[in-house]
Amino acid sequence: QNRSRMSTEQAAMNPEGLAWTPRPDDYWQVKAHDSSINALETVMEGSGEVSVRMMICGSGDEKISIWDAKKQKKIETLQHVHQGYISSLLVVDDMLLSGSFDQTICLWSIERRSLIKQIKAHAHCVNHLFLHESGVVLSASWDSCVRVWDLRTRLQDHGFSSVVKLPDAALCVVGKQTDVYCGLHDCSIAALDLRSSKQRDTFTGHSGYVTSLHLANLELFSTSFDGSVRVTDVRNGKGRAVLETGLASFNVYHRVDGTRRWVTSSHADGGIRITNVVSGEVKMKFETADKEQIFSLIANHHGMLIAGDALGKMHAWGVKREEEEAAVPTMKRPPASSARMKLCATRIQKVWRGHGGRRRFSRQVRVSPPSFQPAGGA
Predict the structure, then answer these.
(1) What is the tens place of the pLDDT at every residue in 187-230?
(2) How far apart are CA 15 and CA 366, in angstroms?
(3) Cα–Cα distance between 161 and 34 in angstroms, integer?
(4) Of 48, 134, 258, 265, which one has the fewest beta carbons inside 10 Å?
């Protein structure tokens, strides 16, 4: 482990009013792999106050490492299965899915940390996995295809459902309802119809291949090897640049804090930038100690920002929100008036008289809460 503080530049860019700010004393990094960390995933815990329980890294050394987020220690290494660069990770219920350049997708049990099944998924490298809201998994590949996998029905013994053919290599994929969007190696974004399995539109604007996508309502955010972060209206295909750095951009996340909208992106200079979507102003910049390229990023989870770099190091920053700083007012019971106390005394006397005055209340009466039966229950 290696703890450090924010850089002077980073501290100076810490804006007033930004509801998503770093904890300067809560940064750590660890050498997790011998090669670049290309994919990250988390396993959450808790129902009310949700927190990160485990962090999972996929690397170019063909290994997957699982880490305890609180103890910051490695739990397990999954290896000797993939025979190629691990490009994508995805947690689905109690399973972990991993996509690799060996053309396969592996299904792992998270709790047992063992292999369930390995699927020959594509004719070329698997680049990205995405969990659709319907429950199906989408996989994008260098074979210019997006395949749909329904792991619930396990069709043909491995869950393959349908395939969409694209004009160029598919590098990343996202979707909602029947609309699916795929970033291509030819610098464009293909809009697909999940029902017909056909391409319905093409969005342009990048001059380098598209590296990541994030769909937020009717806006599609994208990063590219050209160093730009763009936002596109999926209804008409009109887009604009939110940020242009000239440095390759690899990941993008969008979030809303009240009336403010922010986009978080990682770049080849080892920096993570938080940019105002409307003004394009970079409000904050995180930097890794070695300033290596950040290939993987998780930025939307409560309480933590996680990044994986080209040297195989995993970086994690604790994150606090504005509401954590505000003191929660304590509700105090107002003093009882003399009239209210007289009313309570009168009620107690009536209850006592109802028992004929034969006994005094020598112990406190506890009232049990009502029992609720589920709908249709006995």
Answers:
(1) 999 999 988 889 999 999 999 999 999 999 899 999 999 999 99
(2) 53
(3) 36
(4) 48
